[in-house]
Amino acid sequence: MKEKPSSGTKQFLLTLLATTFSIILTFGTSAIIDRRHKAAAKKEMVMMILYDFDKTIEQVQKAESAIHRAKEAELEVARHPEYFDSLRFNIMPAVTVAAEEFSETTENIFSSNIETFNTLGNVNFVHEVSSFYSLRRSYQQQVLDELKKDVLESGYAQYIESFLDLGFPMYYYVSYAFLKSLQTTRNRCMQMMKVSEEELKEFSQMRSVNNEHDEEGTSSQQLFQETIEADEIIRQAKEKLEQDKQTIK
């Protein structure tokens, strides 16, 4: 016949069981909370990056619109040199946007903190984000900075030849190409992280940001053809001006 455990042994076993359960419950709860915190941090970082993408795209769209207006003015002057005085300042919005710079706050957080990569936990997403910011830097250098330099070094407001040398048709084409690449990368990141347009819109509205996008349906091929034609019009206008000068002499 087995001996029954003494009351002291029972108390010890009950205490041990309660302690073990308490430890499991504490660590289990901590792990759950930790996972939730990490998930929330990841979501917040992803939304911040995508929000920054949209702000960049809005700024590029604004620049593209201003450059398009300047292109039209340059073409009109090429066709009708007598309109130079009335149209030469139509390029001022493009000059203004060329002087603007992108905010790099989110990019710096993304690229300078190793914990950001641990938080995101998605190598492909990190690669796409890096690609987006690389495209943005290239746009700043190849479009905005070059345009600003060309405008500052020209006498576009005094001389029609200088005005026609600015080359806005090509700037517009390059700007368009960059915009499409930025939008494609942004959309790929949205799909990769399973973020809906509604979620991002709600996130943006919390910061009082208008998240509307220009969705003009101009194809790359069509725009390229228009660019070539625009360059030809300007070239012919410059040749005619030179011929007129020679005739006067």
Question: How would you characterize this protein structure?
Answer:
The relative contact order is 0.13. The chain has helices at 7-79, 84-87, 92-98, 105-112, 114-120, 123-153, 160-164, 168-192, 197-205, 220-248. Helix 1 packs antiparallel against helix 3 (92-98), helix 1 (7-79) runs parallel beside helix 10 (220-248) and helix 6 packs antiparallel against helix 8. The termini are far apart. Helix content is 80%, strand content 0%. The longest helix is centred in the N-terminal third of the chain and has 73 residues, at 7-79. By secondary structure, it is mostly helical.
Helix-strand makeup class: mainly alpha
Task: Sum up the overall morphology in one term.
Answer: rod-shaped
- Total of helices: 10
The biggest sheet amounts to:
none
**Roughly what fraction of the amino acids lie in strands?**
under 5%
Secondary structure tally: strands: 0
Radius of gyration: 30 Å
Helix content: over 70%
Order of helices and strands: HHHHHHHHHH
Poorly predicted runs: 29-34, 209-216
Kindly report the average pLDDT value: 81
Terminal Cα separation, in Å?
A: 132 Å
Tag the structure with descriptive keywords.
249 residues; mainly alpha
In short:
The chain has ten helices and no strands. The protein is mostly helical and 249 residues long. Mean pLDDT is 81; it is low at 29-34 and 209-216.
Question: What is the secondary structure topology, with strand pairs?
Answer:
Elements: H1 7-79, H2 84-87, H3 92-98, H4 105-112, H5 114-120, H6 123-153, H7 160-164, H8 168-192, H9 197-205, H10 220-248
